[in-house]
Amino acid sequence: MPESALAREVLEHLIHGISNRRWLELHELYAEEAVVEYPFALPTPTRLEGRAAIQRYFAAVARMPLELRAHNIVMHEATDPEVIIAEYDYDGLVTTTGRAFQVSNIQISTVRHGRIVTSRDYHNHLVLAHVTGRLPDLISAFTNKEST
Predict the structure, then answer these.
(1) Domain residue limits, the chain
(2) Element (H, E) at 140
(3) Is the pTM of this model over 0.70?
């Protein structure tokens, strides 16, 4: 993205890149020192610091048997032109099982010089764990925490 790209343009590019499975390119939308937070990640919140960590994250997602198609995209511009809030839904498909699902998202991002510098992503991690067969491991993680 050019340095002059607006926050809305950068986030639209990210969302469409996810829908088009361009996982191995998406880290390029982030600043070198970017921070991405997943406050609702389970079993604990996740924080990615730096473009290299973000690149590793997207590479791991690329190996998952998921297809995601964004729709119902609504962008909310903040009083700060660097901040953009996006609401959207994904129609998802687990390619190994044919299982379809839907998950909603809210993402609050700060974009500076055409790159995402901060992002807080809120989506339903429980749905994703369920459809990808990771729910038993997630429940086990919570059960093990409670017993210690």
Answers:
(1) 7-147
(2) helix 135-147
(3) yes
